[in-house]
Every structure is written in C-alpha cells, then in structure tokens.
C-alpha cells in the first residue's frame, strides 16, 4: 500500500513539476533560464528519494506531505538564486549575498524547527524529522553552491573572459559540429589503415585522394554550421595550378578548416601536436603535410618535394592564434621558404573566425566566415626575407582593417551585439531584437557617416545597441553614449568586448557637457524636451560640431499631421503603458522650419529623409560647412 501511495505521489509530483517548468519558461522567456531554475528542484527531489532509500527511511503519507513542502521550498530557493544571478549579470553588481543570506536563514529555521523532532521516540515522527532535515539540507547545498557554479560556467565567467554566454542551441550545435569533425577524422583514420594502406597504388595517388577527402571533411564541417554564413572573396585570384606559399592570419581553430576547404591541393604547415594527435595525426602524416618542429624553414627539402608534386603550402606566420582577432607579428619562416624556393606568397585574410570561435573556446557562435584572397606578393633579390616579412605584415594589417570595414555590416555584427542582452531580461532581450531588426539599415547608414576615429555622441542611447554596433565596427572611434534612464545605462554598460573608447553615461542631455565631435546622433530624443530646451540643446550641438562633422536628428515632424497621431500613440504606449522610456515633460515634436532655421544660423547644410511610412519620423542630416 505504501508503494502505491508513493508511486501515485511521484506521478502527481512529475505532473506538478511539468506545470512549474512551463510557468518558469513563461516567466523567464528562455528555455536555458527555465532549465537553470528547474534543475535544483528535480535534483533536490532525486536526492531526497535516493537518501531516503539508502537509509531505509519509511515513506508514509505524512512524509509525502513533508516532501511536497520541501519541493515547494526548493522552488522558492531556486527562483531566488536565479533572480539574483540574473540581476548580477544584468547590472554587474554583487547582490547575490543578500539572496543567499535570506535562503540560509529560511533553511536553517526550517531545519531547526523540524530537526528537534529527531529526539522523538515515535518512529513515524522520527522519520518526518529525517526527511525534513535531509530534504532542506539537499536543497540548500544545490541552490547555494551547485546552481551558481552552473550559471557561472555558462554565463558569468564567460562574460568576464570576454566570451559570449552559452545558449542551448549554440551548445548543442557546437557539440554536434565538433563530434562530426572528430568522428569523421576517426573514420578517415580507420579507412586509411584498413583500405588505403593495402591498396597496390602509388602513394602519391593515394595522397591525392586522401587530401581531397580531408578538404571535403573540412568544408562539410563548416557548412554543417547552418547558423554561420560562409563566403570566399576574390577566389579568381587564387590560381593553384602554380604552387604558392599561402599565408593567413590566425585567431581561431576554424582558420584551419577555412584554408583546407579552399582546395585539396593546399597542405598546412602543422605543429607537433597535430602530427601526434590520436584523432587525425595518422592521416595528416600520410597525406604529406609538412611538419617543422624548429620552424618552417627547417624542412626545405620535404617542402620542395610537396611543391614539386603540385601542392601549395599554407602557413600561419603568427605562429599561434591571436586572442583579440588582430594580426600580430609575423615569424619569418614562410618568407624564408618563399625566397629559398622561389615560390610566390599569396596572402589570405580570414575575417569573422575570431567572432564565431575565439581562441580557447569550443562554442561555434552565429556569424559570418569570410576568406579574402589577396594579390600575390613577389620579392626581389635585394629584399631580405626579414624585410619581406615586415612588408607582408604591414600590407595584411592594412588590408585586414579595410576589408573588415567594407565587408562587415549589421548582419555580421548582429550576433555579437545581441549577445550583450542575453539572460538579462526577456522583455529587454526581445525589445532589443525587434529594435535591431527595424533599425539595422539605418544603423548601417549612421556608420557610413561616423568616420573611423572621431568622437561620436549617441544621445538617448537607451540600452546602447547602436553604440555597440558603431564600437564593434571601428574600435578607434571614441563613443559617448548617454541616457536619462539609469537602469538602461547600467544594463548597457555591463556588456562584452568594450574598450576605453566606449563610454556609457547616465546624464540629462539638458545639462550634459559636450566636447567637439564629428558625429552626433539624436534619435527620438528632442520631443522629450520643451521647445526652449530644444533650442538650447541644438545651439550647444551647433557650437561643438567640427568642420565637416554631422548631426543626425531623427524625430517626429509636426507637419505630417496624420502620421503624427501614430507617432504620438507609440510614444504614449512606450512611456505610459510599457514604460520603456521615461519623460518629465509633455511631448513636443519639432518642425522642419525650426530645423532649417537652426541650420542657416549655424552654417549647416540640411537634407531631410523620410524614415517611416506609418509614423511621422524623419531624418534631418546636418553637415557643418567651412
């Protein structure tokens, strides 16, 4: 009978757990946070049942009621810890101790209150006390220690290391891709031993077939990542009918696959760990990949034989992966080989690999992988290989910066920008996603006017997604992003991949000091000011805009009376209902006549663009004349 009661209770508990999980999913808005909050509840129940069974504690009706109480208390503890970790991740402030203190106090009170029953002589009462103490102790251990460890591993620690938080999709897909590559390599090794070795065919023919399969394995691994786009630019410049020394920048494990997928006639200069790898070392050696323990130049005869067989040799002259994605100092081996064997250098620029899979990270994030083929580099007899190396380094660094600026837009940076808002709040996350989707074309246009290294103001920056995009596009820019809402600025400032050129300030633009700037972005801000405050603010902008600088003002235009009503409605919803924005005044939309008057008085050229078919938003582009 007791077993039947226990089984029925387990069924009811599982049903209740399902309801709890669905509720958590709705509240937190992400399956990862729902699982994170739900995990201690299930683990607590498993521990209670396991320990009770191990010590042969009777499971009677009263114990079932007590266990239900413990399960509910575990719900509370788990949610408290989840909320505390989210708040700490959201604001960067250490507030977990307050949550932990409350949980410890509640847990100890419960343990003491029920633990005194251990001294009771009646077996049923004694078992109630045991179940209570064991259950609460298990819940405390899980929520206070195990749960934070999991969140730190997937989120907090990674953000501190300037890595993106892990999502369930990225975790599963990354494991799938690495498993695919490793299993494919193992199968290739087995086939080499069983099938390729015994074949009575010339080794060079077998090597050619093997290198074809290796190239396809690399390509299929990359293309299996459907969340990562791939493209090769200027492939027509790469003529491997004549062997080359290919050099490429190196910041990710994916660089190897990106180079190998280009053509089966490309062999990479490998290090000892690759040669000795139990997973792919055997077929790498058999395929004839050059290996240099003491440097690329130490095996010239073997490299010459590979070139004579029609292969091109790929070398990563930095020697190791760059931590920040920037091109570091080149070693001279590739250039020594080029001069010694009279083989031209062909540089490849690998863009996006660092953002998709940074050094010392196994996560394959969403993004773009771009290979840019540069023109061949030839040397002269008068130029030493050391001078050749320096010239190639400077050339590739300059080209890398130019190509990255030209080829990377809102689609490229979207994943990195949005990752700054992961796990901070479901409402904020969806708000930023929607705003990004609606504004991404405008952001690309703003970027085209921002210059590469001037001072940019982003007034009314909100959660800072535009500022992040402009910062990622060119980290040489100095960006001052300000907003009246302290909560938004706190969230914006607690992001990833910032340097000292990006500043978030909580300040009222009516009193904000402004330095000479090259670009000022005034997006949906002016209508929060009174007409007089608008004029004062504009005059302050006009006096601090440098010659050739730009002021971009986007706001509702008074003249568009029919569309203005829709704009007023969206602002009413934003400020009064959803409260995404704060205001201390009534809304005051400006007219084109006022903007035109300001432009004439302050020596600005003026251009106006309609920004919406459904609202009265227009973009005024003001450029300071000499």
- DSSP summary: helix tally: 21
Provide the structure class.
alpha/beta
CA-CA gap between termini: 93 Å
Assigned CATH architecture of the largest domain: 3-Layer(aba) Sandwich
Main sheet? 7 strands, mixed
Shape: flat
Number of structural units classed as domains: 3
List keywords for this structure.
seven-stranded mixed beta sheet, six-stranded mixed beta sheet, 13 strands, Rossmann fold, alpha/beta
Condensed summary:
The protein is an alpha/beta fold and 626 residues long.
What does this structure look like?
The chain is α/β, with parallel strands linked by helices. It folds into three domains: 159 residues, Multidrug efflux transporter AcrB transmembrane domain (Multidrug efflux transporter AcrB transmembrane fold, Up-down Bundle), CATH 1.20.1640.10; 241 residues, 3-Layer(aba) Sandwich (Glycerol-3-phosphate (1)-acyltransferase); 214 residues, Vaccinia Virus protein VP39 (Rossmann fold, 3-Layer(aba) Sandwich). Helix content is 55%, strand content 13%. The protein has a seven-stranded mixed β-sheet with strand order 9-8-7-10-11-13-12, sandwiched between helices. A six-stranded mixed β-sheet has the order 1-6-5-2-4-3, sandwiched between helices. Strand 10, helix 19 and strand 11 form a beta-alpha-beta unit. Helix 1 runs antiparallel to helix 2 and helix 7 crosses helix 8. It is flat, with a radius of gyration of 31 Å.
């Amino acid at each position: 009978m007791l077993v039947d009661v226990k089984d029925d209770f387990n069924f009811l508990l599982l049903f209740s757990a399902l309801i709890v999980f669905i509720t958590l999913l709705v509240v937190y808005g992400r399956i990862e946070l729902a699982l994170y909050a739900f995990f201690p509840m299930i683990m607590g129940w498993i521990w209670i049942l396991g320990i009770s069974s191990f010590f042969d504690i009777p499971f009677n009706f009263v114990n079932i009621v007590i266990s239900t109480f413990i399960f509910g208390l575990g719900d509370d503890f788990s949610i408290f810890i989840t909320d505390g970790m989210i708040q700490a991740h959201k604001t960067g402030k250490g507030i977990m101790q307050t949550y932990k203190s409350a949980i410890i106090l509640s847990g100890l009170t419960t343990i003491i209150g029920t633990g005194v029953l251990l001294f009771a002589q009646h077996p049923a009462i004694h078992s109630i006390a045991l179940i209570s103490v064991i259950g609460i102790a298990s819940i405390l251990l899980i929520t206070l220690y195990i749960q934070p460890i999991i969140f730190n591993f997937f989120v907090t620690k990674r953000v501190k290391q300037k890595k993106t938080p892990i999502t369930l999709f990225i975790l599963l897909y990354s494991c799938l891709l690495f498993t695919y590559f490793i299993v494919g390599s193992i199968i290739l090794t087995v086939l080499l031993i069983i099938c390729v070795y015994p074949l009575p065919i010339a080794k060079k023919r077998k090597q050619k077939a093997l290198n074809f399969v290796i190239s396809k394995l690399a390509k299929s691994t990359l293309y299996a990542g459907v969340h990562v786009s791939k493209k090769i630019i200027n492939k027509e410049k790469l003529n491997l009918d004549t062997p080359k020394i290919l050099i490429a920048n190196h910041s990710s494990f994916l660089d190897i696959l990106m180079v190998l997928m280009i053509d089966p006639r490309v062999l990479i200069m490998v290090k000892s760990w690759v040669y000795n790898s139990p997973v792919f070392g055997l077929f790498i050696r058999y395929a004839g990949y050059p290996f240099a323990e003491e440097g690329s130049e130490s095996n010239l005869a073997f490299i010459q034989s590979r070139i004579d067989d029609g292969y091109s040799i790929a070398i990563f002259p930095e020697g190791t992966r760059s931590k920040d994605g920037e091109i570091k100092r080149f070693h001279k081996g590739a250039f020594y080989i080029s001069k010694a064997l009279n083989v031209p250098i062909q540089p490849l620029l690998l863009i996006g690999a660092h953002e998709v899979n940074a050094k010392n990270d196994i996560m394959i994030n969403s993004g773009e992988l771009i290979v840019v083929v540069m023109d061949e580099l030839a040397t002269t007899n008068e130029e030493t290989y050391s001078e050749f190396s320096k010239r190639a380094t400077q050339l590739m660094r300059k080209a890398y910066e130019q190509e990255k600026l030209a080829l990377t837009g809102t689609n490229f940076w979207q994943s990195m920008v949005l990752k700054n808002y992961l796990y901070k709040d479901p409402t904020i996350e969806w708000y930023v996603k929607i705003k990004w989707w609606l504004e991404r074309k405008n952001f690309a246009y703003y970027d085209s006017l921002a210059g590469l290294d001037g001072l940019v103001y982003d007034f009314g920056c909100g959660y800072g997604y535009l500022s992040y995009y402009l910062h990622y596009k060119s980290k040489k820019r100095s960006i001052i992003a300000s907003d009246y809402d302290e909560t938004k600025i706190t969230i914006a400032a607690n992001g990833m991949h910032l340097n000292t050129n990006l500043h978030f300030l909580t300040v009222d633009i009516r009193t904000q000091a402004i330095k000479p700037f090259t670009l000022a972005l005034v997006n949906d801000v002016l209508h929060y000011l009174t007409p007089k405050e608008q004029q004062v603010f504009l005059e302050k902008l006009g006096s601090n805009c440098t010659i050739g600088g730009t002021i971009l003002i986007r706001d509702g235009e008074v003249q568009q009376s029919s569309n203005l009503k829709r704009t007023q409605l969206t602002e009413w919803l934003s400020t009064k209902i959803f409260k995404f924005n704060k205001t201390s005044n009534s809304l005051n939309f400006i007219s084109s006549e006022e903007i035109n008057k300001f432009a004439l008085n302050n020596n600005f050229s003026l251009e106006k663009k309609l920004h919406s078919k459904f609202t009265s938003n227009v973009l005024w582009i003001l450029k300071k004349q000499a």
